[in-house]
């Protein structure tokens, strides 16, 4: 994922867009938090502390995105990797918690179909997150231009597939909020 924005001028665009995405994530998560609080006033389907915890986990993920954007993969790889781990790990926990909260709000505030879609995205993201970490931890060098047959190429390739799967999982998950926000 970060390979797409390591060399200038792409690195500047990548960092800027990741920071914009993190900001939009914060706004979306906060609106979702407020929506659940408002719905919960009449329905009492979830503890307020669970909603706050979910928001905090989500905000941690956005901070991780900011770290990824600020510390480029080749410049400061250890900080970049910690940021990525926080972003993806917190993101997976956030969407899983939101899926559970969605089920608790059924059928008054959500349809079971939307809940099933959210949970499916969460499960796929969780499943992809684990091998992403495993494969990434097997890579012994930090570089950008990989060629097939190179040492660690397979680990890099598989890790990248899992990383993109989780990233798109987050995008599709947030798209399921459209109806809730109307």
From TrEMBL:
Bilayer topology reads: Multi-pass membrane protein
Report domain CWH43-like N-terminal positions. 2-182
| Record InterPro entries | CWH43_N (IPR019402), DRAM/TMEM150_Autophagy_Mod (IPR050911)
The record lists the membrane-crossing segments as 12-31, 52-70, 82-101, 113-135, 155-178
Q: Which GO cellular component does the record give, naming just one?
A: endomembrane system
Keywords recorded for this protein, A-Z:
Membrane, Transmembrane, Transmembrane helix
Q: Does the keyword Lipoprotein apply?
A: no
Location of this chain's protein in the cell? Endomembrane system
Q: Name one GO biological process term.
A: regulation of autophagy
- Does Cytoplasm count among this protein's keywords? no
Family membership, please give it. Belongs to the DRAM/TMEM150 family.
- The protein in question is named DRAM1 protein
Organism this protein belongs to: Aegotheles bennettii
**Lineage of source species:** Eukaryota, Metazoa, Chordata, Craniata, Vertebrata
